[in-house]
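Q: what sequence does this backbone want?
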């Protein structure tokens, strides 16, 4: 690595660490769910929009679900549905449930800054959750709940059809891969899953909400983010 590259890497690392401090400003403007599409991309977005609408109807038809019965809104996803990068978090919180939008408040601001540290704008990716309703008192979803919603989540992934999947938090890891080990033992290494005969590369990392509670682990997230940036370059992904 050249001296210039080392200096640039140090700069991005410091930017990430600095922005992990929870002194955020808030942007109330909602993300454009299907933004910046032209030509063939616009047609693809329309097809995805129809499929996502059908998926949302399926999820809304769930019966005897404690999550659904105690939430105000179903949170499917936000951002660019035609993005090559899909981020899956754990579950909506209070602000998401009230607004009907993904990644609001401190958590959303932190995610935005994490991505900016590797030159990615939040509005250029697609974000979703492992379960689509806020758990009561923001508790962790049970394994039964995770398994129940994983059917919809895997369909969701196939619809978005990203080139890279980023799983943020243990719930997302369990929902997509079936692993329920400590996330500290699984994060930071590229894995793969196969859905509908297509292979997706996966990076498991800590969730923004976890990093707000345990900021000492932000150094590990920075390592994961660098690997994501490198994968984007290796796959020649434009974002």
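A:
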């Amino acid at each position: 690595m050249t001296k210039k590259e080392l200096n640039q890497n140090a700069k991005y690392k410091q930017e990430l660490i600095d922005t992990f401090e929870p002194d955020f400003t808030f942007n109330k403007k909602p993300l454009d769910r299907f933004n910046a599409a032209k030509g063939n991309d616009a047609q693809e977005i329309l097809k995805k929009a129809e499929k996502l609408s059908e998926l949302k109807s399926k999820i809304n038809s769930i019966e005897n679900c404690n999550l659904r019965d105690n939430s105000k809104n179903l949170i499917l996803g936000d951002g660019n549905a035609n993005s090559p990068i899909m981020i899956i978090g754990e579950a909506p919180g209070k602000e998401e449930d009230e607004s009907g939008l993904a990644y609001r408040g401190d958590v959303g601001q932190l995610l935005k800054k994490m991505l900016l540290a590797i030159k990615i704008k939040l509005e250029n990716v697609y974000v979703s959750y492992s379960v689509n309703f806020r758990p009561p008192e923001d508790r962790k979803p049970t394994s039964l709940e995770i398994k129940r919603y994983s059917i919809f989540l895997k369909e969701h992934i196939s619809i978005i059809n990203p080139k890279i999947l980023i799983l943020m938090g243990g719930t997302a890891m369990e929902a997509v891969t079936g692993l329920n080990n400590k996330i500290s033992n699984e994060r930071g290494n590229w894995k793969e899953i196969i859905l509908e005969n297509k292979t997706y590369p996966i990076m498991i990392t800590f969730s923004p909400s976890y990093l707000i509670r345990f900021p000492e682990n932000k150094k590990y997230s920075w390592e994961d983010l660098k690997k994501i940036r490198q994968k984007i370059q290796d796959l020649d992904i434009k974002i």
